[in-house]
Design a protein that fits this description.
Layout: H1 3-12, H2 19-27, E1 48-51, E2 54-56, H3 59-69, E3 76-80, H4 86-94, E4 100-105, H5 108-118, E5 126-130, E6 143-148, H6 157-162, E7 163-173, E8 176-182, E9 188-194
Parallel strand pairs: 3-4, 3-6, 4-5, 6-7
Antiparallel strand pairs: 1-2, 7-8, 8-9
Helix pairs in contact: 2-4
């Protein structure tokens, strides 16, 4: 199987529907973001270990999250949990026109792994940080979109504060995927999608 085959399956399943998100999946090869021992399984629809108790998420899950997030070509995005850098790369491709991706990783070794993987692409709109993603990145806020691939007990207040009015957060809470829209400074609209399994937010 090739990356193209893998993407076509996500399209035929109707998991991927938005042209700019489809184009990002076609341009970014998942094989570039797995450990060498996982290359033979890069196009399987399952999470793969990248060490330190972390995984590169299941492709279907990433596709669903991006379809719910709906990043625009101009979006400034905060990603919590850089991991392998795969989702970072997809976001960077989607917002390539004039948006930026700010990605924060708790584990320094994973940040370096992601940095090496991202060097395979010519991104000029990605900034990587080591730190506590629960606190967001206040100095670069507000963000149009915030996304996390790791599960907490709630959508954190710092993330809500750092989101623009009209912005959206997509993040797991327990085993549910939460889509949170910021309608005003204190008013939010929440949708919940059940049936997921995520690693815990560190």
């Amino acid at each position: 199987m090739t990356n193209q085959d893998f993407v076509e399956k996500l399209i035929s399943d109707k998991t991927l529907q938005t042209p700019r998100i489809i184009n990002a999946f076609k341009a970014i090869d998942r094989k570039d973001f797995v450990l060498s021992e996982g290359e033979g399984r890069a196009y399987e629809d399952r999470p793969l270990s990248i060490g330190f108790g972390a995984t590169i998420s299941q492709p279907t899950t990433i596709a669903i999250m991006l379809e719910k997030l709906q990043p625009e070509p101009t979006s400034n995005v905060l990603e919590v949990g850089t991991g392998s850098g795969y989702l970072t790369a997809l976001l960077a491709k989607i917002v390539w026109d004039s948006g930026e991706v700010f990605s924060i990783e708790y584990i320094p070794e994973l940040k370096e792994f992601a940095k090496a993987n991202l060097k395979k692409y010519n991104f000029r709109n990605v900034s990587l940080f080591v730190g506590d993603g629960k606190k967001g990145l206040k100095e670069y806020a507000p963000f149009d979109k915030i996304i996390s691939s790791a599960s907490g007990n709630e959508i954190l207040k710092e993330w809500k504060r750092q989101l623009k009015i009209g912005g959206r957060i997509v993040a797991p809470v327990d085993d549910n995927l939460i889509v949170l829209d910021k309608l005003s400074k204190r008013k939010f609209k929440e949708n919940k999608i059940s049936g997921f399994i995520f690693v815990p937010l560190q």
